[in-house]
């Protein structure tokens, strides 16, 4: 017998030898030099090892690490160890590393004094070894703890105990370590522990523990048969302790723990043993979490019954579709092939997901006189299954059980209809590529697949004989889910109707270039107020047409056109003017009013009676405050500039205003002091201006100005025109401003949020920005502002400067506006979780000098980010990798819940087979719960859902294409409808990062200087329920200039990964990406840093970053799918286009390379990316645009001449001219070298409106203009 054998798991003579060894173990121990035996795996203790393991000693690798941010130390942190007296020393070798992170959970190991926990992942991508030198020959209990913290990185890990000659003494493989597992061995003599990754991406081992052996006190095991095929086990236990019962049934390789008895119990009945089968049992004594070696094994063979057999009458079975019945019939006979009547035959389903998400029970039937049992089964789901029929042993007739298995194939019905078009490129021009996503755009004969267009104005529901057929450049030959076409350069610009055919006929039409208004900035307005709209295709000029953009309000009976005051291709602003009171649908036209599109979000706008808005908040709810009731704090005892605490007086004024039903608490010019200011609802705290009224904090580390009473739950509080300071730079409040709910349930559960209608306007907060503040204690952190509520928050025209003086957390559900703010800070982040968020015209300055974690703008779903400046000072000092530095980001933590296969679906339901049990109930921090189809039928569709039962959800809107058994899903709260337009990003480590869950996003006309560019990511850890797709992203017209330091990269990268899938394709992570008209200037230096992107240029990467090792690629892989790379300029780079494997449907056209060493680089070998490169030169199709904060200034000369000056425009090629308009009539054209202009003398008594547009050499005119007025 070798030491590798599990000596109590063998039968026959080996088992007898094992029994003898157990009985004489103490007598032979001293003669052995090294032994090891695997005795137990503990899945329940998790990280709570103190008092459970390690009573004699422990080793916690790298546990002295005490970082404030995620990462590892350099040099590596020391272990924390308390060695037993019998362990002289230990050492480590091999590929072992660690990473400290937060938050900690129950699967994080306790500190040795149990005062807290640390989450330190000790891991290897291959193997590592710990060697322990022992100075005795006694036996000891040794345990190792392993967890991947739920990341799904560890699928199977092998723990081997080796002797000093590296001979394997014992080996154990374990999986599913998310919650943590302890694997325990008995060891004797010096030994080594080898930890090896078997499957997954990493193997983990976070702690090693030594304990005294548990004596085996259970002995004398006997097995006695009882009536009814039960077996009674009895034993004696000198300690009367708990006992584990192990069993191995004939044909099984290993013992399995089947029961654990309570203390003092010395018997156990194993019920319903099978006839003619050997059962082998052993015992282990238990002490807390520790187990003894097993006892001597005892076997028993049950009596045999006469054989019977079952046979299928018809097999295998096949059904054309789920929901169709099938009759199952089996015949039961005895050993003489005579029928057996009156017996119950049970039918059970077998196969994937059966018993977990599919009910295995089909039913039962009684055999008739011919031995036949029959029933009708209606399978609910498609798939390949087995059907098992069986009978139980009959203890009266002494007949043995019988069993028969056959196959059941439930087919998925074929699509036998015309194609269905789901989505197409926005703002398409003649001569450019257009992509379409949909279903059934394929046929057996590809000549049946065609695409045609007609001008929308004259098109009908089906194509006419005059329809123009398009060149199909690339099609989805595998599944017919996308198509790429080239629009003829000879057609006229404008809106078109598109059809695609297959063998069944033409699809329903899909309209190109019509407006797509996505969402509104508010749902109420009164006369004279403006509403912002975020969307796509707002300006016909973007696709070279000239028609006017219009907005109208439609109540179903009448429609009222309203003035558009600001317009870009992605946003517009209209003013409510001459519209009767009532509720309206907002509609947008970009063709002069011929076709209209409603707001996609379903929002409506209610026009309400005019009200007061003295602060210019620009919202109807400003009238919900009582502006006329003004209470001066000096009337309640406050005295400006006296240096005395004014808290009592300020609170008295607030109390008086509250008792009046609300009002304005006024702080006049001067300096006031308070320890705390508590705001109930209906209260506005207002001064004379942030430089005139100063309010100093003189309290402790709690919040300064905060919601109180019903202000926490109802909101309706505001702060305006106040300068807020700390009187003592050694004592900051936790937050200078805290509106809405307290930190608690409302942070993570958006349904708990009720506070609404809050604002902070024209207020300043200033304290030293480069002096670190201790933020680890949960108080005194100096946070600028926090708000937790339901809807309607305005942050406008504020100045906030300090270590963490920004709005540090904004947890709102809907309607947030941030505009005109200047924020300067060194630490932390500023997420806004609200839908219908507009972030415009701000400047955010991140101070990099202190080299700590800091982030820029953070957004979620339905967010519009336009005309902001985000920059970093001291960028050369910002060198530490803190997974930070983003200029603008959309993150998804807490917004991914499940991934897996679709079992079945109807028009408005879906039933899932998740890789992990659904985490119901799901609590959302923001957004909506949606299911995205990430593979198979219905790819790219996403719908809001509500949980029904089991694994079934109900849709809020029906599917266009019903998913089926070929489909995979991801259950997420998506970051959909994101617009990042015309922002200026400078010296930030990272540029625009869409981390995942981003759907229908645009990143357009931004200038990124010395950043690492634009990152479009999909991530997944399939076996832990995480898959974050990124679909339908348009990256267009951006300028990426320079890199964030020598040797770094700057590019546009679309990346997906394969994690916990054995390196095989699982689903599409990146889909429908368009990268057009961008200018990139980077670096030719090699890149080898983890802090930034690995490549400059334009990158499509699959299965390489944070993925399983050794990916397996096939031509059918679709990790990154349907990607257009068109008309980009790339200069000064090592690589232009970098394309991995795992890609499908990538097309490049008209890209220009200047001083690029490799224009196309395929790391896995030539043609492995399957890139389609079309012939064609670069063409300047993108219009010039105005940088952030561009203005037209107008003055008057003494002779009534208008003197115009403006900021220079930008263009990816170059601006050549400016056009000057007066009252919409072209006045003059000047060269680009001129940024000023003087008109002829103007007649007096009139108001004149001037506009300036920019042109490039290709004749493209800027989509927006700079405008201003002058009155004579």
From TrEMBL:
<dbReference type="InterPro" id="IPR003961">
    <property type="entry name" value="FN3_dom"/>
</dbReference>
<protein>
    <recommendedName>
        <fullName>Fibronectin type-III domain-containing protein</fullName>
    </recommendedName>
</protein>
<dbReference type="InterPro" id="IPR024535">
    <property type="entry name" value="RHGA/B-epi-like_pectate_lyase"/>
</dbReference>
<dbReference type="InterPro" id="IPR008964">
    <property type="entry name" value="Invasin/intimin_cell_adhesion"/>
</dbReference>
<dbReference type="Pfam" id="PF12708">
    <property type="entry name" value="Pect-lyase_RHGA_epim"/>
</dbReference>
<keyword id="KW-0732">Signal</keyword>
<dbReference type="InterPro" id="IPR011050">
    <property type="entry name" value="Pectin_lyase_fold/virulence"/>
</dbReference>
<dbReference type="InterPro" id="IPR012334">
    <property type="entry name" value="Pectin_lyas_fold"/>
</dbReference>
<dbReference type="InterPro" id="IPR013783">
    <property type="entry name" value="Ig-like_fold"/>
</dbReference>
<feature type="domain" description="Fibronectin type-III">
    <location>
        <begin position="1188"/>
        <end position="1272"/>
    </location>
</feature>
<dbReference type="InterPro" id="IPR036116">
    <property type="entry name" value="FN3_sf"/>
</dbReference>
<feature type="signal peptide">
    <location>
        <begin position="1"/>
        <end position="29"/>
    </location>
</feature>
<dbReference type="InterPro" id="IPR006626">
    <property type="entry name" value="PbH1"/>
</dbReference>
């Amino acid at each position: 017998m070798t030491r590798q054998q599990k000596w109590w798991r063998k039968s026959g003579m080996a088992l007898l030898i094992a029994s003898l060894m157990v009985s004489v173990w103490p007598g032979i121990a001293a003669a052995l030099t090294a032994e090891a035996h695997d005795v137990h795996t503990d899945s329940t203790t998790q990280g709570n090892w103190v008092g459970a393991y390690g009573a004699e000693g422990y080793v916690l690798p790298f546990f002295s690490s005490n970082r404030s941010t995620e990462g590892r130390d350099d040099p590596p942190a020391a272990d924390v160890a308390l060695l037993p007296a019998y362990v002289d020393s230990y050492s480590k070798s091999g590929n072992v590393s660690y990473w400290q992170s937060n938050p900690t959970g129950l699967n994080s190991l306790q500190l040795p004094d149990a005062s807290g926990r640390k989450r330190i992942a000790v891991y290897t991508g291959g193997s590592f070894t710990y060697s322990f030198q022992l100075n005795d020959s006694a036996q000891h209990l040794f345990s190792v703890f392993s967890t991947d913290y739920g990341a799904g990185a560890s699928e199977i890990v092998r723990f081997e105990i080796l002797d000093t000659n590296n001979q394997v003494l014992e080996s154990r493989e374990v999986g599913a370590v998310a919650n943590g597992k302890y694997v325990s061995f008995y060891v004797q003599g010096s030994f080594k522990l080898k930890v090896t990754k078997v499957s997954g991406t990493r193997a983990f081992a976070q702690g090693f523990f030594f304990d005294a052996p548990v004596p085996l006190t259970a002995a004398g095991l006997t097995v006695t048969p009882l009536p009814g095929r039960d077996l009674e086990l009895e034993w004696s236990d000198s300690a009367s302790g708990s006992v584990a019962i192990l069993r191995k049934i004939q044909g099984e390789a290993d013992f399995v723990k089947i029961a654990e008895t309570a203390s003092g119990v010395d018997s156990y009945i194993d019920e319903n043993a099978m006839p003619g089968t050997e059962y082998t049992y052993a015992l282990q004594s238990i002490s807390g979490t520790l187990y003894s070696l097993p006892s001597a094994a005892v076997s028993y063979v049950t009596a045999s019954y006469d054989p019977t057999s079952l046979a299928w009458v018809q097999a295998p079975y096949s059904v054309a579709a789920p929901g169709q019945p099938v009759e199952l019939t089996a015949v039961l006979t005895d050993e003489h092939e005579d029928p057996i009547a009156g017996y119950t035959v049970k039918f059970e389903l077998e196969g994937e997901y059966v018993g977990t998400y599919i009910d295995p029970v089909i039913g039962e039937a009684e055999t008739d006189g011919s031995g036949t049992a029959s029933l009708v089964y209606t399978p609910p789901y498609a798939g390949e299954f087995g059907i098992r029929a069986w009978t139980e042993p009959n203890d009266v007739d002494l007949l043995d059980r019988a069993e028969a298995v056959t196959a059941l194939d439930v087919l998925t019905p074929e699509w036998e209809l015309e194609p269905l078009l789901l989505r197409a490129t926005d703002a398409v021009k003649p001569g450019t590529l257009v992509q379409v996503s949909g279903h059934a755009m394929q046929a057996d004969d590809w000549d049946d697949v065609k695409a045609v267009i007609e001008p929308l104005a004259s098109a009908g529901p089906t194509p006419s004989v005059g329809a123009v057929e398009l060149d199909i450049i690339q099609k989805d030959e595998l599944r017919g889910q996308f198509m790429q076409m080239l629009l003829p350069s000879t057609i006229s610009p404008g809106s078109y109707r598109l059809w695609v055919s297959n063998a069944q006929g033409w699809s329903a039409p899909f309209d190109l270039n019509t407006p797509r208004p996505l969402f509104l900035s508010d749902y109420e307005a009164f006369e004279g107020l403006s509403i912002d709209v975020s969307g796509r295709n707002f300006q016909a000029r973007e696709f070279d047409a000239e028609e006017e953009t219009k907005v109208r309000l439609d109540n179903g009976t009448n429609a009222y056109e309203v003035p558009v005051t600001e317009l870009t291709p992605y946003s517009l602003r209209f003013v409510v003017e001459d519209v009767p009171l009532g509720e309206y649908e907002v509609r947008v036209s970009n063709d002069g009013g011929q076709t209209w599109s409603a707001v996609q979000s379903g929002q409506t706008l209610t026009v309400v009676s005019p009200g007061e808005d003295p602060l210019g908040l620009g919202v109807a709810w400003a009238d919900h405050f009582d502006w006329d009731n003004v209470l001066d704090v000096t009337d309640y005892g406050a005295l400006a500039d006296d240096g005395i605490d004014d808290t009592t007086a300020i609170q008295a004024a607030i109390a008086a205003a509250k008792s009046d039903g609300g009002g304005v608490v006024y702080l006049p010019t001067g300096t006031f002091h308070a320890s705390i200011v508590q705001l109930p609802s209906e209260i506005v705290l207002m001064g004379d201006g942030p430089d005139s009224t100063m309010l100093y904090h003189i309290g402790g580390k709690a919040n300064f100005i905060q919601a109180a009473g019903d202000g926490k739950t109802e909101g309706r509080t505001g702060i305006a025109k106040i300068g807020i300071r700390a009187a003592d730079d050694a004592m900051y409040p936790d937050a200078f401003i805290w509106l809405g709910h307290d930190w608690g349930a409302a942070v993570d559960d958006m349904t708990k949020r009720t506070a609404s209608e809050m604002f902070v306007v024209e207020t300043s907060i200033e304290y030293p920005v480069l002096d670190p503040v201790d933020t680890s204690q949960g108080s005194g952190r100096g946070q600028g502002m926090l708000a937790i509520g339901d809807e309607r928050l305005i942050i406008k025209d504020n100045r906030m400067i300090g270590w963490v003086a920004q709005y540090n957390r904004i947890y709102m559900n809907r309607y947030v506006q941030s505009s005109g703010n200047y924020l300067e800070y060194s630490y932390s982040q500023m997420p806004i979780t609200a839908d219908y968020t507009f972030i415009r015209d701000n400047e955010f300055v991140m101070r990099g000098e202190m080299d700590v974690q800091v982030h820029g703008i953070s957004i979620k779903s339905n967010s519009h980010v336009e005309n902001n400046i985000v920059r970093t000072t001291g960028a050369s000092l910002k060198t530490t990798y803190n997974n930070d530095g983003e200029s603008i980001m959309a993150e998804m933590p807490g917004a991914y819940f499940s991934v897996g296969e679709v079992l079945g679906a109807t028009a408005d339901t879906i039933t899932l087979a998740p890789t992990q049990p659904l985490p119901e109930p799901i609590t959302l921090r923001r957004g909506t719960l949606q299911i995205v189809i990430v593979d198979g039928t219905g790819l790219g569709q996403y719908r809001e859902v509500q949980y029904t039962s089991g694994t079934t959800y109900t849709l809020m809107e029906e599917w266009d294409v019903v998913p089926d058994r070929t489909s995979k899903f991801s259950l997420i709260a998506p970051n959909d409808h994101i617009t990042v337009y015309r922002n200026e990003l400078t010296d930030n480590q990272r540029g625009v990062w869409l981390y995942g869950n981003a759907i229908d996003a645009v990143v357009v006309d931004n200038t990124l200087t010395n950043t690492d560019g634009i990152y479009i990511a999909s991530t997944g850890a399939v076996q832990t329920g995480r898959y974050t797709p990124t679909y339908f992203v348009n990256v267009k017209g951006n300028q990426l200039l320079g890199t964030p330091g020598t040797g770094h990269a700057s590019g546009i990268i679309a990346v997906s990964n394969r994690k916990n899938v054995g390196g095989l394709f699982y689903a599409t992570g990146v889909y429908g990406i368009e990268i057009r008209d961008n200018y990139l200037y980077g670096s030719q230096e090699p890149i080898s840093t983890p802090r930034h992107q690995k490549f400059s240029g334009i990158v499509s990467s699959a299965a390489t970053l944070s993925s399983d090792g050794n990916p397996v690629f096939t031509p059918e892989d679709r990790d990154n799918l349907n990607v257009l790379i068109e008309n980009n300029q790339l200069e000064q780079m090592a690589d232009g286009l970098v394309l991995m494997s795992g890609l499908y449907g990538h097309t490049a056209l008209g890209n220009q390379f200047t001083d690029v060493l490799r224009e196309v680089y395929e790391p896995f070998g030539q043609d492995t990316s399957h890139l389609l490169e079309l012939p064609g030169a670069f063409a300047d199709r993108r219009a010039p645009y105005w940088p952030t904060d561009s203005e037209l200034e107008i003055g008057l000369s003494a002779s009534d001449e208008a003197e115009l000056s403006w900021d220079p425009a930008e263009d990816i090629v170059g601006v050549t001219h400016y056009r000057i308009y007066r009252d919409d009539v072209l006045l003059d054209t000047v060269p680009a070298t001129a940024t000023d202009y003087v008109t002829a003398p103007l007649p007096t008594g009139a108001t004149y409106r001037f506009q300036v547009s920019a042109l490039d050499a290709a004749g493209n005119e800027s989509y927006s203009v700079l405008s201003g007025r002058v009155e004579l």
